[in-house]
Amino acid sequence: ARNPEMYARKTSIAHGLQVTAEKDDGIILNGMKLLGTGAAFSDEIWVGNLLPLSPDQKAQAVTCAVPTAANGVSLWVRKPFEKYAVTPFDSPFSSRFDESDAVAIFDEVKVPWERVFLLDDVQQSREMYFRTPSHVMGNHQSIVRYHEKLKIILGFAYKAAEMNNVLQVPAVREALSKLAVAEAGLRGWIAGQIEDAETFSPYLHVNRRQLYAALNWCTNSYNQITESVREMLGAGPFLMPADVSALTDPALRQTFERYWAAGEASAIDRLKLMKLAWDYLGSDFAARHTQYERFYAGPQFVHAFYNFNNCPWDEHKRHVEDLMSSMEVPDVSEEKPLRSAGGSPR
Predict the structure, then answer these.
(1) Pair (13, 83) in one structural domain
(2) Could you tell me the residue range of the domain that residue 75 belongs to?
């Protein structure tokens, strides 16, 4: 993952953000930088490189901080989900917690030298995140965040099974137990990162190997986890009225409360659960989270390299080599070889 040749591309136009001029009082930036989650809410934009740069991309080897409101900076933001939410009741998460994602365009943006931290060093432009705890600690908080999301997803699954009175069904319990194992495993990974904290140069930080193993699991598992809970919801989300305004009519409210109740669950409680669960697991907001959890930390082959590079292969190999060394091969005998009943040596 650190080989710049893997990222080398031939393009007719250089769109990537780069330094186009150096002046006595600062540098000039032009180009595109992506992807900025929450950029629309930020006061500052950190410009840097997590992917390796090739030697001929020296102009892109810049690390600096730029005010979001700086002249020449524009944010191209994707469609917001909050704007199209009907009500906080019908879209309880997308109406409140849309992070927003944006592409930042820099057009003749001037950055004073006191805001420039690195320039023209292709290798160090990326290595600065791995020779310090920056990358590992940044992703540790994302694993903790993921765990909090996972706990509420388990809550949706259990509540749906309880409301549908199917907790006693073996297949349902098996599905819930698999979710429980996933949550417990991730919790153990987080504890392991802290318990096995390591010293790297002058820094103390969470365990790298535990961190990257958890990160790989998280990015590969979110879609499967949410899919299993959506299966437990069944057609429930589609049985609910279009929006809660229908319940402001007395006659419609009476009809709804009569026919939508199931077992001990009231119609209103079923409506609340479906609105919460579907907004979290099946809406546009949910689809964005599924895509985000898959790619926010980079493509999958990058996670594979992180885990390969941080595994103590020599230690594991040594165990096998020690066993191999302990296996004694008999010396060559001067006696005539033993023969089988058929007359051939054995």
Answers:
(1) yes
(2) 4-127
pLDDT digits (tens, 9 = 90+) for 24-38: 999 999 999 988 889
**H/E element holding 285?**
helix 284-295
Structure tokens at 11: 């393009």
* First and final C-alpha spacing in the chain: 52
- Give yes or no for residue 4 having a pLDDT over 90: no
Residue 196 maps to a domain = yes
Do 118 and 157 fall within a single domain? Answer: no
Q: Same domain, yes or no, for 76 and 172?
A: no
Angle between helices 267-281 and 134-163 (to 10 degrees): 150
Model confidence at 6: pLDDT above 70:
no
Task: Look at residue 165 and tell me whether its pLDDT is greater than 60.
Answer: yes
The dihedrals phi and psi of 293, each to the nearest 5 degrees, come to -65, -25
DSSP state of 51: S
Gap between the Cα atoms of 225 and 92, Å rounded: 21
3-state secondary structure of 138: helix
Shared-domain flag, residues 138 and 198: yes
Q: Are 231 and 239 spatial neighbours (Cβ–Cβ below 8 Å)? A: no
Alpha-carbon distance of 134 to 286, in angstroms, equals 29
- Structural domain contains residue 156: yes
Rounded distance between C-alpha atoms, residue 259 and residue 171, angstroms: 28
Entry pTM: 0.86
